[in-house]
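Technical annex, item 7. During the second reporting period the consortium partners agreed on a shared format for inverse folding records so that results from different sites could be compared directly. Each record opens with the tokenized structure and is followed by the designed sequence. A conforming record, contributed by the partner at site C, is shown below for reference.
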């Protein structure tokens, strides 16, 4: 398989299409208010509770928001287990818009190239630190789609900003204001480093939790007679 090799890219990328899917919504509405003000034509794609929060906070700007289920044409799996794991999402995240074949793929699927992903994950570490937390409760808080989406965006930092730290909202707003709604390569690179560290620490917490427990402890909460 031949690898795609990109040699020329854009330093500044206009933020037009954003995916937001966050568990911790602290500071989110203020950040989105800034995004809407700086780039009035921005489209924000979001899932379940995030979509409900944003459309509730900005009812007069409903046209700026798209439910990911409407975009993909696939409803969320019961319990929210599958929301963003969809070809059309990853086409928009991993496409190199400097590649004409990728652009044709986007057109074929009626997809959009995403310019920013804002994501944070189920609070696995916080859950397992609570006294009496069962192995099943811990297992249910292992995020799958979030880390995949964050890693895809971070890999494609040549044109996508992967935002995982709430404390970076103000920095990103300042960058967008400075560059008329665009975000620079240097910041995208810094965000990518933080994003990969974020997912690495998350997976480490999960692996350490499992390693520190034996089979009997992990499976004691299940009826194994079936």
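Designed sequence (site C submission):
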């Amino acid at each position: 398989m031949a690898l795609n090799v990109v040699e020329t890219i854009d330093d500044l990328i206009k933020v037009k299409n954003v995916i937001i899917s966050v568990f911790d919504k602290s500071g989110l509405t203020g950040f989105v208010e800034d995004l809407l003000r700086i780039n009035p034509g921005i489209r924000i794609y979001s899932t379940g509770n995030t979509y409900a929060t944003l459309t509730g906070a900005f009812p007069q700007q409903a046209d700026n928001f798209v439910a990911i289920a409407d975009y993909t044409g696939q409803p969320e799996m019961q319990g929210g287990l599958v929301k963003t794991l969809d070809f059309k999402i990853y086409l928009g995240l991993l496409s190199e818009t400097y590649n004409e074949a990728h652009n044709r793929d986007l057109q074929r699927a009626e997809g959009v190239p995403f310019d920013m992903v804002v994501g944070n994950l189920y609070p696995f570490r916080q859950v397992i630190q609570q006294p009496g937390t069962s192995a099943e409760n811990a297992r249910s808080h292992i995020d799958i789609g979030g880390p995949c989406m964050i890693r895809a965006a971070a890999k494609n930092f040549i044109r996508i900003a992967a935002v995982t730290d709430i404390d970076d909202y103000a920095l990103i707003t300042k960058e967008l204001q400075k560059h008329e709604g665009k975000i620079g390569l240097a910041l995208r690179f810094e965000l990518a480093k933080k994003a990969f560290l974020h997912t690495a620490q998350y997976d480490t917490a999960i692996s350490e939790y499992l390693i520190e427990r034996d089979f009997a402890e992990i499976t004691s909460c299940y009826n194994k007679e079936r």
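The chain has a mean pLDDT of 90. The beta strands are 13-14, 17-22, 43-46, 65-67, 116-120, 161-163, 182-183. All partners now use this format for quarterly exchanges.
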